[in-house]
Design a protein that fits this description.
Number of helices: 11
Strand order of the largest sheet: 3-4-6-5
Structural class: alpha+beta
Radius of gyration: 21 Å
Helix content: 40-55%
Order of helices and strands: HHHHHHHEEHEEHHEEH
Number of strands: 6
Shape: globular
Distance between the termini: 48 Å
Length: 310
């Protein structure tokens, strides 16, 4: 309104002052920041907030959770009744996004799919991200499959994507690992990684932008609406074939801790470089049940399979 009345410089000054105050608040007290940002609601553009991982999405409509009908499983196969008795978590009800892919995105996705095929032995005839997700879902649904095996499959795929050259370079100049001793991470490691990452991981997650971590420091990255999660609709694929292997790979191969925090209500995802992750079983942001519209769950039910999502 001020800008419409000709006070563009004044409006810009007020926006900058608000941004400064929010940055100071998140650094001082994250809980107070969440309350303040939530109270502002739609008054502030979501893209202008320093961190959105715990901020409700204005206008997001929650769907009512459903119960899993364990009778469909058969009593003899319903081994984990607690998991199937749990309420399902509402799937995201925000409109789907149509993603545009650059030539680099297409090239990286093609390479990534070939590496996944090498690890799993399965090739999908579908194109693009849908083909990759079919590869991941086929691997997930194999008899006796475990979360650990899925983590390792993606871990090895990431190693192949970065080639043997990149990790040693990163360890020295980012993580400060020299002659086997970790002197870092260097002060620039987290924020520089958050700045570079959107270019090279957009093929998998879609558009993202640098932001602040929960502690208010630079080194955060928010995926605006994750391509992998939107197109899969599956919590297990998200957690076991993206979140956990990414965290493990950064910590073990690159020497920099990473916390990946998906938001299943909005399909945003917060990546916080230099932040140590909590155990997924203790993470309150990871829902216990499956997502209501998860296609993987429907397949498990049709197979009379009693495995839980994660």
């Amino acid at each position: 309104e001020i800008e419409a009345q000709g006070g563009r410089d004044q409006a810009r000054g007020l926006v900058n002052e608000r941004r400064k105050l929010l940055h100071q608040l998140i650094q001082h007290d994250y809980t107070a920041y969440v309350r303040a940002a939530t109270a502002l609601g739609g008054l502030v553009d979501r893209n202008d907030l320093p961190n959105v991982q715990d901020i409700p999405y204005e206008g997001r409509t929650r769907k009512q959770p459903q119960k899993v009908d364990i009778s469909l499983l058969g009593k003899s196969r319903a081994l984990d009744r607690a998991a199937y008795d749990a309420e399902l978590f509402p799937s995201c009800s925000l409109p789907n996004v149509t993603y545009t892919e650059s030539l680099l995105d297409k090239a990286l996705l093609s390479i990534f799919r070939k590496l996944v095929e090498k690890e799993t032995g399965f090739q999908s005839e579908k194109e693009g991200i849908l083909g990759l997700l079919e590869q991941g879902r086929e691997y997930l649904l194999r008899p006796g499959q475990t979360a650990e095996a899925q983590n390792r499959m993606v871990y090895n795929t990431l190693a192949g994507l970065l080639t043997p050259v990149m990790p040693p370079f990163y360890k020295v100049f980012m993580s400060g690992i020299i002659a086997g001793k970790q002197l870092g991470p260097w002060p620039w490691a987290a924020w520089l990684t958050s700045f570079v990452t959107p270019t090279f991981f957009g093929f998998l997650v879609g558009p993202s932008r640098p932001n602040r971590r929960k502690d208010g420091q630079l080194g955060g990255l928010v995926v605006e609406k994750c391509k992998f999660l939107q197109e899969s609709g599956c919590k297990s694929l998200c957690v076991n074939q993206c979140k956990l292997p990414a965290q493990q790979f950064f910590a073990q191969e690159l020497g920099l801790s990473l916390t990946v925090t998906p938001n299943f209500e909005t399909q945003e995802c917060q990546w916080s470089f230099g932040e140590h992750p909590v155990d997924v079983a203790k993470d309150p942001r990871i829902p216990r049940g499956c997502l209501t519209e998860c296609p993987t769950r429907e397949v498990l039910v049709s197979m009379r399979e009693s495995r839980s999502c994660v």
